[in-house]
Predict the structure of Glycerol-3-phosphate cytidylyltransferase.
Amino acid sequence: MKVVITYGTFDLFHVGHVRLLKRLSKLGDKLIVGISSDSFNELKGKESFFSYKERAEIVKSCRFVDEVFPENNWEQKEQDIVKYGANIFAMGNDWHGKFDHLNEVCDVVYLKRTEHVSTTEIKKKLSAT
Ligand code: C2G
């Protein structure tokens, strides 16, 4: 059983998120997603439109995702990887190189981001209308 783990805010769930999760699901048998908590988002300097609870419910309902859990800080990844028995840690390539240290505990993969769509862009376009 090959387990893939990833993390993100996943606010205003969009096609970039879906395409990433779909590709990640093809890398293994199980896909587990750490959803940034509201307090961690503050730490990341992000204010999400939907609460952690809503974002977790939306991502969990995605057919490519098997399990979600809260991401509360930068430091928990190593212990999450061990806890969930993850074989692959994967992120979009806007994070390229940022998590290479996790190579000690599992394979680290960065996949190409979907261009021309982001939560920030969506917010900008909506506020301009
Ligand atoms: N993503 C993508 N294509 C987009 C937008 C996002 O592939 N057009 C990917 C990102 O690369 C990331 C995931 O979708 O792997 C979630 O993106 P965000 O919700 O923006 O998450 P982020 O704020 O990058 O938080 O500890 C890691 C952080 O929690 C990641």
In short: The chain has one domain: 3-117. The first strand starts at residue 3 and ends at 8. The chain has a mean pLDDT of 97. Helices lie at 15-25, 38-43, 52-60, 77-84, 119-128.
